[in-house]
From TrEMBL:
<protein>
    <recommendedName>
        <fullName>Toprim domain-containing protein</fullName>
    </recommendedName>
</protein>
<dbReference type="Pfam" id="PF01751">
    <property type="entry name" value="Toprim"/>
</dbReference>
<dbReference type="InterPro" id="IPR006171">
    <property type="entry name" value="TOPRIM_dom"/>
</dbReference>
<dbReference type="InterPro" id="IPR023405">
    <property type="entry name" value="Topo_IA_core_domain"/>
</dbReference>
<feature type="domain" description="Toprim">
    <location>
        <begin position="3"/>
        <end position="108"/>
    </location>
</feature>
Amino acid sequence: MSVLILAEKPPQAKAYSEAFPKFGKKDGYFHVPPCSLLPTGGNITWTIGHLVELNTPEDYKEEWKNGELPKLPILPERSVYKVSPSKRKQFNFVKRLMKEADTLTVAT
């Protein structure tokens, strides 16, 4: 059973990692080897705030681009999200680690 602990920010993930007897820093996460608290080991990663954001109005309809008063309110049929370009790398780490984990602990 693999455990993933999801923190809000890198310093928080580091603080959680330091609570374990041993841990290793990886690119985008910390790895905790098996120990008394995590018998099968686990990983600790972070989200850097919001990894995804709502699409902009013009992503839904070109006519919503300028937010003109007569066209308000902007109410799409369904909200669509996209990965924040500046956070794509961390999003991919979180996505991969979540697929590998059997248990997810949200520790934000």
